[in-house]
Structure formats: structure tokens, C-alpha cells
Amino acid sequence: MPASESFRIPKHRRHVPTARQRVRKTLADWGITDELADAVTLLANELVTNAVTHCRVPHSQIKVELTLDEKELVLEVSDPDRDRLPRPHDSTPDEEGGRGLALVASLAANWGCRQEPYAKCVWAHFALEGAHVPATL
Hints:
By secondary structure, the protein is α+β, with helices and mostly antiparallel strands. It has one domain (3-127): Histidine kinase-like ATPase, C-terminal domain (Heat Shock Protein 90, 2-Layer Sandwich), CATH 3.30.565.10. 31% of the residues lie in helices and 28% in strands. It has 3 helices and 5 strands, in the order E-H-H-E-E-H-E-E. A 5-stranded antiparallel beta sheet has the order 1-2-3-5-4, covered by helices on one side. The longest helix is centred in the first third of the chain and has 20 residues, at 35-54. The protein is globular.
């Protein structure tokens, strides 16, 4: 049976570090503390920041979900602005932002987004081949 953890944070920049810390703690609780943990935590930070920055639904919450089974780890970040799907952006060297999805594409085995009835979800899959994952899960 897969391990799963989910939580919600208010849609505000000051809560992004909280999401990052919760992801890191969940991964550590599952025994994942290597480069995989670094990559998942970094991408959680990017996806939560994108959701907080671009969601136009006031007073909403961002949902973060992690699922781990023997083959992969899945990170999902959802927000209620279901019609604004993320698009990769070619940033110029002078731009401060716009590289988050390129980072997601480079570190995740696969990524994408889906529209749900009342939300959109951006997801990233991480293959566990070669990653240190305890056999107790």
C-alpha cells in the first residue's frame, strides 16, 4: 500500500517555507534524505510558489500531496484557479523568474497538469530506481 501525506496552506507567500518544511519532514519520515529529497523539496517550493503567485482566487488554499510506492514518488500541488494552467516560459537572462517549470522538467521523470472539477493540479513524478528508499514502505 502506498504511503501518502497531504496538507493545505493559505495562498500567501509567507506560507511557502511552511510547505517546503512539511515536504522535507514527510520525506525524512519516509527515510528519504538524499538527492531525491533535495529535488522533491526544491520542486515543491517551485510549484507552491507558482500556485501562490498565479492563483487569482482570493482567500484560497494550496493543497500539497505526496504519494510514495515502490516504483515512484508523486508530488501534486493543487489550487482552485482551475482555468489558469501553467505554461513553460522561455526566460531571458535578465528576468528574475519564469524558470520554475523548466526546473521541474529537468528534475522530475515526468510532469504535467490536469483540471479537476474545482481545481487544477500540477504534478511531478520521480522514479525510484537507484534512489535510497527504505524497504519498510
